[in-house]
Amino acid sequence: MAFALGVPIAAVWAAAPASLQVQIVDERGLPVRDAVVELTPNGGWRGGAIRFAWKPAMAQKSVAFVPGTLIVARGSNVAFPNLDSVRHSVYSFSKAARFEIDLYGRDQTRSQAFPIAGTVALGCNIHDQMRGYIRVVDTPFAGKTDQNGIVRLSGMAAGGHQLTVWHARARTPGGELKRALAVGAGASSQKIALKLR
Amino acid sequence: MIQLPSALQRFRFRSLKLRIAVAYAALSTAILAAILLLAGNGIARFGEDSASRDLAANARVFDEIIALRAQQMRGSADVLSRDFGFREAVATGDQATIESALVSLRERSRSHAAFVVGLDGTMTGSATAALPASNDLWDALDGGQDHGIIRIGDKLALAAASPIKVPDTIGWLVVAQPLDAAEMRRLAKLAAVDIDARVVRASQLPPALAGAPSGRVLESGDSERVLHHVTALPALQAGVRPRLVLDHSLSKALGEYSGLQWLLVALAGAGLTLIIVLSWRIARTITRPLSALDEATRRLGEGKDASVEVTSDDEIGRLGASFNVMVAAIAERERQITHVALHDGLTNLPNRKLFVEQLDQALARRRDEARLMVVYVDLDDFKVVNDTLGHPAGDALLRNVAKHLQAVLGDAIVARLGGDEFAILLSDLSATENLAALANKLQSCFDRPILIDGQQADASASMGIAVAPDDGLDGITLMKNADLALYRAKRDGKATYHFFEQSLDEQARHRRQMELDLRLAIRDGGFELYFQPLYSMHEERLKAFEALIRWPHADKGMISPVEFIPLAEETGLIVQIGEWVIREACRQAATWDGELSVAVNISPKQFLTPGLANIVLSALASSGLPANRLELEITESIFIANVEKTLETLHSLRALGVRIALDDFGTGYSSLSYLRSFPFDKLKIDQSFVRDLAQGGNANAVIRAITTLADALGMETLAEGVEDAAQAEILRQEGCHQIQGYLLSRPIDADAVHVFIAGMVAEPDQHRLSA
Lengths: 197, 771
Fold this sequence. Notes:
The complex is a heterodimer.
Chain A: H1 2-5, E1 18-25, E2 36-41, E3 59-60, E4 65-66, E5 69-73, E6 76-81, E7 88-94, E8 97-104, E9 109-114, E10 118-124, E11 127-137, E12 142-144, E13 150-156, E14 159-166, E15 176-183, E16 187-193
Parallel strand pairs in A: 1-16, 5-11
Antiparallel strand pairs in A: 1-13, 2-12, 2-14, 3-4, 6-9, 7-8, 10-11, 14-15
Chain B: H1 3-10, H2 16-81, H3 84-92, H4 95-109, E1 113-118, E2 123-127, H5 134-142, E3 147-152, E4 155-165, E5 169-178, H6 181-188, E6 196-201, H7 207-210, E7 217-220, E8 226-232, E9 242-249, H8 250-301, H9 315-342, H10 352-365, E10 371-379, H11 382-389, H12 391-409, E11 413-418, E12 421-429, H13 435-445, E13 449-452, E14 455-458, E15 461-468, H14 475-491, E16 497-499, H15 502-524, E17 528-536, E18 541-553, E19 557-559, H16 561-571, H17 574-589, E20 597-601, H18 604-608, H19 612-623, E21 630-634, H20 638-641, H21 643-656, E22 659-665, H22 672-677, E23 682-685, H23 687-691, H24 699-713, E24 716-719, H25 725-733, E25 738-740, E26 748-749, H26 750-762, H27 767-770
Parallel strand pairs in B: 15-16, 18-20, 20-21, 21-22, 22-23, 23-24, 24-25
Antiparallel strand pairs in B: 1-2, 1-5, 3-4, 4-5, 6-9, 7-8, 8-9, 10-12, 10-15, 11-12, 13-14, 17-18, 17-25, 17-26, 18-19
């Protein structure tokens, strides 16, 4: 079904015949959007540099971080372009990245390197309601759920994996849910319920 | 049951006023009491409801106060939790910084505890007492609850939580303030009413309140009534079930209304007083006219002026008006009755009663020198008018006389005493007034002819006059004396007047005594019969005796018939005396020699007695005397009254066989027509003719005329009062049949009669007659 839809997973198209569809729902069974699903092969990823199909950038637009949740590979340099007419700052007290970018104006860009995998919660010092999340991952098999709470991963090799689901509002320590998953050849699917606050 | 009537009886007041007032006041009091009771209950219930509502409302206010307090605490927590540096310290786990910041916050916000609960369950903070475990708080905090009750040590405290966001919530800053008694008092002061507030754990509630539903008002207490309100407060700590208990003293709340209730009682008291006063006044306005009517009725009964004042136009006013009309009607009727009682119906003149009153009044008014004249008037021949013209004519005559007297005498008082008797009162006569002239003037009032039904009637009158003060000072004496004077005037001949003299009074007294003695004599048989012989010169023999009554009085000796017969005539005693005479004469005559008759005088009054013939018959029968030996002597006066009746009686007597003689012939109204109308057996020539015989003259001619007439009519003649032989001789020559007189004998008693008869028989030759 995933193939029939032809969603391009560019990086692993030729080498990984296996694919995984994961749907994240909340306790009421409603699809959860913007949940990050990561599939890490047991023993870690050894396949070299990881590149995602999206730009590693977190813009500030209409007093909000866009996109609200961004997946970047470990070591990536993320740009923070200010598209608003007001000034914004960017800070994070997360363990994965502690930094503070002072206020900067329109059409200015700041950037920050994220050398540690984990979750980085972003805030603006002068706009409390602004929230942005950067998920720094160590695997190329990661994606955000769409409006149907579905994400498709493909190109991974069959074998044991660790599946990690993260959501900003997940009621779990660190917002993460980890489980071991044996990925077989061909398509498989998982439905995972997540407690949200 | 038996007691009830007497008990009711006790409440039956004699006064209508009191009854109305009491009933009205009792009813009003009952209504007032009911209102008072309802109002009192209403106030109490209102007070209770009000206190209850107050408590419920204040409970809500209290919730709000607690929420506000929590918000205030959270506000102070927010300041720190949003501080970038603090957030950084929390986010980076800088314990020293956090703790110093918390101490600073505690001091600034004067809260007892300030601590941070990390999202990961860590707990950092400072407090005066033991803090609760973070696990007990985490769920509530993570559930977004921003305030609630927690335990700090053994106290319950109000806690407010402020999330620490970087930007995601990494923990909560919690500040707490123990809700001890001092704090609760401080909060309670914010409530509108006096409330005692405390926060306890559900397990520590007193038994009475343990099962109480939250948010409901309960009441407890005996001596002091207390309202309780229990509400659950939000708990920020698991396992703590805090309850806010509010106590509100109902007794105190109701105490505020007791003043109102006393005011109500005071108002009721004033109202009651007013009601009683008004009841009394209303009752009085109703009963005052009734009392006036009652009083007026009593006055009416006493004959006084009894009209009442009419002050309203309601029922009572109309009753008063009707009463006045009634009083006027009664007064008018009384006046009419009085008029009838005091006036003569025929002439409308005052009657005897009124005359006596007026006389008394006039006497009372009389001044010392003034004189007063009472005149009794009696019409002389009224009886004749009545008999000849009829009673209507008599009445007309009386009215005419009355009217004339009133017209002529002017201010004199004229009264009709009854029958044909009038009285005239002339008062205020001066001492020098010529009373005789006045009497003449009065007499002249009657000196006029009166036409009745076209016939002329004589209205002459006799008058008796008494004058005060000479003839008496009181009405009774004056009237009696006037009457005596009238009696005398009548006897003196008619159409004259007579002033009262003292002798009249003595005569009258004498007459009264004699009348009494007469009655006694009739009862006791005190009379005697004397007899005077009647001698027939024609037959030269004793013919009869005339019975003459004698009255031997115990004190006064023999009383002459001349004295007592007129009195007997007047008083009517003559009838009984006459009957006795007839019976006694018959009885005596029956004892005499066979030829001798007895002659008995019949008075006019006796003659008119209906039973005369029966009496004569009875006397004849009981004595056995033959009727032809009884001779009844009557006088001409019996013809005056009623000729037909007289003739009828005469014929009925004649039918008995007795002889009838006409006595005293030649005197009075002698009329020859009587002789023609009845065949008398004998004419008795009055002694006045006999007495004149000796003087010569025409006396002889009269005697001769009478004897001639009697012979022609076939009647015997007898001459009375023959005293000597010369007279007897003349009478014999003139043809008189019999004589009677002293020549023969005085009247002698019954015993002497027998001697006389015996003597006459012994000496038949009457030498005295021839002498």
